Amino acid sequence: MNIRVAGVLAAVMLLFACPAKSQTHGRGYEVFTPISKYLGQGDVDKLSAWFSDNLEITIFSATNDYSRSQACQVLKSFFKSYTPRSFEIAHQAGRTNMKYALGTLTAGGEHFMVTIFVGYKDSSYKIQHLKIERME
To answer: Which of 69, 84, 88, 119 has the fewest CB atoms lying closer than 10 Å?
Structure first.
């Protein structure tokens, strides 16, 4: 492996593997508290307050970019098929202006791995990517 590739890989690993030491923008990881609550309840209307104007949603390996209102419809459809019972965060990491969390969603008698990426923009954190995958 050449030095340039190794350096890029090391930078990516540091970005996603190390918990943020500084929480300059205030809310820090607290952003995941309401997001977790609304995911566990399947409350898309309240969850959508945390959406970026445009965000990426991945459900079962199908990824698309959506507006906030389109994303609401996609998630409402998902929760209609898989009634949520709970959501628990297992891991959080990131940097000051970008954070992610991994958690388990129990819904419709199944378990799903959920990855949430939030970015800091216009004085608050917003969901930029939400990924839902079946756990096997």
So the answer is: 69
The pTM of the full predicted model, rounded to 2 decimals, is 0.78
Query: What average pLDDT does this structure show over 40-54?
Result: 97
**Residue 91: burial class (beta carbons within 10 Å; 0-12, 13-18, 19+):** exposed
Q: Find tokens 């959406």 and name the residue.
A: 51
CA distance 1 to 77: 45
Q: Which CATH class is domain 19-134?
A: alpha beta
